[in-house]
């Protein structure tokens, strides 16, 4: 039987740490679905449509990687997709507690679904979407930490926000 894995997350934005985990997952499983959670953060930087578009573009040459969105309980989505595995990345011990809780809760909710933890390459262990947004918004370089497309979209976002702000000030 083909093994389908779901890699869930917010991906706001997609980082090279995520990309690394997805590439590793794609080697391990027959198919891997990057499942973007809808409606969690009230004010995400990138809309769901933007996050889907970015991820589809980044993985366009990897036919076994699919990009989708989900709402509600993760285990219900995984069940609906008839997937067997949830993939989560573990960067450091600090990730462990929350991930452990989520994995056990998901196991209690649906014992047929296994959570598999994967480690990203060492150079990505300190990257998080939150830090990327903070560093970029304060003028720091994020080159090499996110896909080039994400870097470009971050630049466009910031210049869009600046233009809007300038428009407001002149009117
Ligand atoms: O990228 P993130 O924010 O670490 O991803 C967290 C995510 C989306 C995996 C988690 O919040 C989730 O599964 N949310 C869906 C709702 C749910 O099933 N909650 C119970 C999880 S134990």
What does this 3D model show about the protein?
- The protein has helices at 16-28, 48-58, 74-80, 93-109, 129-137, 148-170; strands spanning 4-9, 31-37, 65-70, 85-89, 114-118.
- It starts with a strand and ends with a helix.
- Strand 2, helix 2 and strand 3 (65-70) form a beta-alpha-beta unit.
- A five-stranded parallel sheet has the order 3-2-1-4-5, with helices on both faces.
- It is of the alpha/beta class.
- The chain has one domain: HUPs (Rossmann fold), CATH 3.40.50.
- It is built from six helices and five strands, in the order E-H-E-H-E-H-E-H-E-H-H.
- The chain is globular, with a radius of gyration of 17 Å.
- The structure holds 4'-phosphopantetheine.
- 4'-phosphopantetheine (PNS) is lined by residues 8-10, 37, 73-74, 102, 105-106.
How would you summarize what this structure contains?
This protein is an alpha/beta fold and 171 residues long.
């Amino acid at each position: 039987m083909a093994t389908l894995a779901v890699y869930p997350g917010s991906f706001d934005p997609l980082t090279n740490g995520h990309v690394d985990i997805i590439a590793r997952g794609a080697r391990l499983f027959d198919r891997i679905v990057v499942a973007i959670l809808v409606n969690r953060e009230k004010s995400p930087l990138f809309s769901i449509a933007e996050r889907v578009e970015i991820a589809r573009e980044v993985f366009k040459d990897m036919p076994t990687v699919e990009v989708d969105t989900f709402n509600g309980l993760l285990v219900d989505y995984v069940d609906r997709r008839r997937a067997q595995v949830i993939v989560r990345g573990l960067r450091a011990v600090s990730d462990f507690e929350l991930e452990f809780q989520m994995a056990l809760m998901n196991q209690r909710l649906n014992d047929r679904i296994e959570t598999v933890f994967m480690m990203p390459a060492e150079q990505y262990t300190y990257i998080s979407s939150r830090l990327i947004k903070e560093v970029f918004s304060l003028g720091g370089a994020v080159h090499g930490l996110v896909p080039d497309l994400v870097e470009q979209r971050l630049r466009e976002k910031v210049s869009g926000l600046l233009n809007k702000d300038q428009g407001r000030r002149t009117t």
